[in-house]
Amino acid sequence: MVAVLTIASGGYGHMLVGQSHPHAPPMTDSQTLHRAADCVLQVEHNLRTADLWQADVPSPAAMASRTPFCADTLTFVQWLQFIFVPRMRELIEAGGPLPGASAIAVMAEVKLDTDQADQARIVAALADFDALIGVSQ
Length: 137
Fold this sequence. Notes:
Blueprint: E1 2-6, E2 14-18, H1 30-49, H2 60-63, H3 76-93, H4 104-111, H5 117-133
Antiparallel strand pairs: 1-2
């Protein structure tokens, strides 16, 4: 089963997430939240190290896309920086719950140049996040 999680405040920037089991408890325990925070911080660090972090914020309209990963209005890197990282921080700081499943690394493998070590590290950090959350089927 696939669900869509709104991850843009007041908008429709979506990421695809699956639900592991309809009766699975929400992922809110502190150890999981700390590990998720580590993954998100690593994604941000790797974006900065790869010189992919941007100073210019996309327009609110661009971030309000209803398309998964805002693919019609943002680059994947912009989606990571302006949608994924802030939304995951919000969820973690609020004590969860985190998504039931995640498959962001697959998209990263397609959109990033994994032959470049800096970009491969972004994919690895997202794969760690996916593994922690559970990979969407």
